[in-house]
Specification:
By secondary structure, this protein is α/β, with parallel strands linked by helices. It has two domains: about 190 residues, Rossmann fold; about 80 residues. About 40% of the residues lie in helices and about 15% in strands. It contains eleven helices and 14 strands. It has a seven-stranded antiparallel beta sheet with strand order 5-9-8-7-11-3-6. Strands 2-1-12-13-14 form a five-stranded parallel beta sheet, with helices on both faces. The protein is globular and about 65 Å long. The N terminus is likely disordered.
Amino acid sequence: MKKTFLTYSCFILAMTCFIVLRVYAGKTLAAENTDETSSEIEVVPVAATPDPEEFAKDPVSDESAAAKDENEYLYRGSVDPVGHYDGTLPRIICWGDSLTVSLDQKSAFPDILRDLSGCEVINYGVESESTAMIAMREGGLRVNVKATVIPADTTLIPVFLRTEDNGHVYFLDNGDGGVNPCTISGIEGELSKLNGSYYFKRARKGERLSVDEGTQFKTFAMNDAREDDVLVIFAGTNDIPDKKSAASIIRLERAMLDAVSCKRFVIVGLTYAGGIPEIDAVNEELSKEFGDNFLDIRKYMLAYGLEDAGITPTQQDMDDIAKGEIPSSLRSDYVHGNRHYHRLLGQQVYRRMQYLGYLGEGL
């Protein structure tokens, strides 16, 4: 009897020890596993049951999505003109700085525009010019001649040129850009610049003429302008404007349109965010002034440029876009566009002209 009781007691004690040791070992293993994996485990909160009314809302109702979609029809897809196309191909005159200049007559956006539209396209881009300098060549900012005498023969004579508000004139500093052949009091000739001074040489012999003070100096582009021309103005980068000074650019561009009684035009927005900190505000002012005639090409390039150019974004491109800069894959340097950029810009100017009813169906 004593032997049986002793045996049973030993069995109970052994089972108790086994259970205690198993529980302790399990807790130790669990603690070790928690320490090893805690940095890799992501706690995902359980989503609340969606509100049926919220779930049914159109996602385009989101403000940012709506803003993007509102502009997308202007940049992509079929073109639904808001104006009437009369079937007569107009001339297209492109005014600008180095962002408009064509080095090979085939790769800049005016060249692309010519190929797409079939129109005669005249490029009056001159590098390093401000909006005021461009307006001087176009006629939006009047340039006068100081009283002088033009001889009967073709002798080279000095001429003194000033803007109407007595400002400095910058003709021929970086290119002709539609200045020559020019006219003074109806006499055609050639303007030249030597050591900072201007000289005029009449093209043909004629009568001696006294020129009155304040007579307007007229460039070739002024004399050649037609009311049915379509103007493309891409200016302002060299002004380095802010929101306040954007009014000056607007005033000059309006004066350029008025100088030739232009009713059909496209104003291209600024693109150089790195040099124009308030570029969004400046473009917004231009948009308010010119409405659908304003092409915010920077907004397009940031949203759709790489995709439409068939370019896979690089990390640098993504960094650029995050900073509001035109992607590096679309630029040749810090401010100028490459061939992809110019092709996209030419296409967008062409689309905008179609939308405004200046051109027939196409792209």
